[in-house]
Structures are given as C-alpha cells and as structure tokens.
Specification:
Blueprint: H1 19-30, E1 40-45, E2 49-53, H2 63-79, E3 85-89, H3 100-115, E4 120-125, H4 127-131, H5 133-136, E5 150-152, H6 156-169, E6 173-179, H7 195-207
Parallel strand pairs: 2-5, 3-4, 3-5
Antiparallel strand pairs: 1-2, 1-6
Helix pairs in contact: 2-3
C-alpha cells in the first residue's frame, strides 16, 4: 500500500482535553468487550509524515498506558501504509535525566521489550534525536533504523503544544484527532468542523483504522 497524500487540515477538538471528551471516550471504552486504550493521533506532514500520540485523552500516562499507546499507534501507521519506527519521547535521551517522566518512559520501553512487539521502537529520547539522522547517529546504540515516523509523547500537554506549534509555525497539515481502540469506528469532530472536515473524518471512520 503506497503512502497516502495529505488530505486536508482538520482542526483538533477544542478544548483538546476537556473532561467531557475524556468521559465520553471512557464510556465508549466501557462498552467494548475487550477494553483497549483509546489514544488520539494527529498526523502531520511537512516533507514527511509522522503520527503523534496521545494528543487528547491520557493526561499523564503510566508506563503500561504508554506501551499500549505505542502499540496502537504502530498498528495505525501500518494501516496507513507506513512501517512504524516508534520513538518514545521525553526531555532526555537514554538516561541523561532521572526525573519522573523520563523514568516513566524508560519503564514503558522495558514493557515493550517484555511484550516482544513486532515493530521498531526505542527511548527514551529527545525529539531532535528521533527526527534528525545526524543527531541520532550520536547514539549508535539506538535501535531505530531511521528517523521515527511515530512519536509517543510523555504527557498530553507535550503532545498538544508540539502539534499546534508545528501546524502554525512549520506549515504542517494536521489530520485528526483520530480516535482508535474501540470495538466500532468512532471519530469526534469539533463544532467548528467544515463540510470537508466531516467528510474526511467520516471516511476515516468508514476505513476503520484499527480493524
């Protein structure tokens, strides 16, 4: 399957992480016979395409949640025609800081190791390490074979801020948020959605990214 071209800019749900939205997502998840985590993904294109998670649901994910988010994001990347290279992001790279969030990300990487998942991943690492070949080369032990195309953020605020910055300052195209992990396809659009927004999100729901 060839890599799809960017569709059109879809506005992120506002407010990005409202309690009402999270409660609706949890209610939907509770109706799923085999509950799975429900991250949102934003797909950005600026010379390349990356997936970013979780931009809307989990405020401060646990190591287990981060591992689940990474696994689902990798599944969505494959559905979109990309072989996932997952970077578990933090404000440090491979143990340079011992603060709580980097440690949480490192624990998530260990969980992925234990699960023996079938996609490339590594971390924790800073965003420039994940996205720049020259910077990544400074860490020869990094397990990614090329720059990352799936970015797992350590917390919701980091994901929300970074995706909006990229869209406004970098001219990126944002597609999403994309809700995955439920038994049936569900997508959420903001009240300000255009007709094109509704059509594109309906198409994504019909395509069913997590089949």
């Amino acid at each position: 399957m060839s890599s799809p071209d960017p569709i059109t800019q879809l506005r992120a749900a506002k407010p990005a992480a409202s309690p009402e939205l999270r409660e609706r997502v949890r209610a939907l998840a509770a109706r799923t016979p085999e509950p799975r985590r429900t991250p949102f993904l934003a797909r950005l294109s600026l010379r390349r395409t990356v997936l970013v998670a979780d931009t809307n649901v989990h405020e401060m994910p646990t190591p287990e949640e981060l591992a689940d988010i990474a696994t689902q994001a990798a599944e969505v990347a494959r559905r979109l025609g990309y072989e996932p290279r997952v970077a578990m992001l933090a404000n440090s790279s491979f143990g340079t800081h011992t603060h709580e969030r980097p440690s949480t990300v490192r624990d998530a990487v260990r969980i992925l190791d234990e699960r023996k998942v079938d996609f490339e991943y590594d971390g924790e690492m800073a965003a420039d390490v994940a996205l720049n070949r020259e910077t990544m080369a400074l860490y020869p032990f990094c397990r990614l074979t090329d720059t990352a195309n799936v970015l797992i953020m350590p917390a919701i605020h980091a994901a929300s801020i970074s995706t909006k910055l990229l869209r406004v300052l970098g001219g990126s195209t944002l597609i999403g948020p994309l809700l995955v992990g439920l038994k049936r396809p569900v997508q959420i659009v903001p009240m300000t959605a255009t007709v094109s927004d509704l059509v594109n999100m309906a198409a994504l729901a019909a395509y069913n990214l997590y089949r």
